Please model this.
Amino acid sequence: MPAPYSTLILYSTPACHLCETAHALMAPHLERLGIVLEEVDISTSDALVDRYGIRIPVIRFADGEAELGWPFNEEAFLGFVGGDSG
Model:
């Protein structure tokens, strides 16, 4: 399990229905796992659009390099963040 108050970045854009779905999937677990979610709007940066434009939503710990891109389900999310389903 990540250290308390780890920051998880959600790369997204406004009005992205897949990003909303990913957020809803993650939200019930964040507090229990000690994770703060930071949403980054990729449309504010050409570099982020180039990197994530067709892959969003993508999540990554602020202090890590591994990324999890859509599509992912609850099980894949929990595996990525080191949580469990309980």
Q: What stands out?
A: Residues 58 and 69 are 4 Å apart (CA to CA). The first strand starts at residue 6 and ends at 12.
